[in-house]
Give the backbone structure.
Amino acid sequence: MNKKVAFYTLGCKLNFSETSTIARNFDDEGFSRVDFSEKADIYVINTCSVTENADKRFKTIVKQAQKSNPNAFVAAVGCYAQLKPQELADVNGVDLVLGATEKFKITDYLNDLSKNDFGEVHSCEIEDADFYVGSYSIGDRTRAFLKVQDGCDYKCTYCTIPLARGISRSDTMEGVLKNARDISKQNIKEIVLTGVNIGDYGKGEFGNKKHEHTFLDLVTELDKVEGIERLRISSIEPNLLKNDTIDLVSKSRAFVPHFHIPLQSGSNEILKKMKRRYMRELYVDRVSKIKEVMPHACIGVDVIVGFPGETDEHFLETYNFLTELDISYLHVFTYSERDNTEAAEMDGIVPGNVRSKRSKMLRGLSVKKRRAFYESQLESARTVLFESENKSGYIHGFTENYVKVKTPWNPELVNTLHAVNLTKIDDDGLVRFDFVKQDSVA
Ligand code: SF4
């Protein structure tokens, strides 16, 4: 009988896309996939280093696996496995820990599935992770996460991602287009581009820094792939989001008017300490440009509170900056110290309670921003892609500009696009709508 394997993914869309690729490798080797809650012979955990309490979370998941099958072989891969291999290997029940260069070769390590007394580590120097492995995952049967780039050459002082994922490198244009076509054949309506720093798309492998194609080339070519109804850029650094890309999206067939742009701080002083590659003035300029050509665009913002040296004045600068800015929602991150980063050595540590208070204030601001954005969209005609879950009798969906809508559950709507008029905002903050014509967009 085929050996059974189960997967658990922590962290970002990129990790999800890579778990899918690793899972397909297992399929090719004749393993059968089961849900993580079921009894399996092998449990693979794709870890994240950004998650708060990453170690605790990891231990809980290992315990869960062992409860399902105490004799199962447990393997850890991913960012945390690269950064702290021994820490993971020491967790009771873990048999194998693979670093960044080894994770896609995991099936080569599984000839002997007998439990080890302690976890075996196959780590690597992150400098060796200079090759590219393409990936995509199908999220909820309606959208796919397509990896186009990996690693990062920036040196933001709070970030461990370059240490966990290595230098910036990207898929070839042919590779991305092939994956996009494969996805479209599976009746997926929306692709979300993922990577660590996707605006840096174009750098080659093995330290070959020659730019073969730019991010603009990438979006131009992807826009032509037939069968994909929607493309979403997801997150892009403000300094890499150029006017020509914004103009292209505004006229595009499939790219939707939704941008997620990390800001991190509205104080130039803090931005400098973070070694971000822009000042707040550039951010204002990017938002203005987007809104000039796409007034209905949704703009999401990442922001960090409690960075070392962030005084009340700096925080208020950020708060006021965001209040004034024409953006639609925030993702708020509370700064936490990471080993081997410059920021962890900086003075001016912000006490935990102050960090929490600032985070709460910005989360409150985010609710207001989202509400104001949704209100600005009422009475407008949009297109909704419906998702696949029945949530307490309702089906949810997103417009092209990321307004979340709901309507009573109807399985026929799953994974279909419909033209709608947005009508009102419910108490739960989701938007109601009228169908323009039931099958106007299918
Ligand atoms: S751009 Fe900065 S924050 Fe983002 S992955 Fe690179 S180093 Fe980290």
Summary: The longest helix spans residues 352-377.
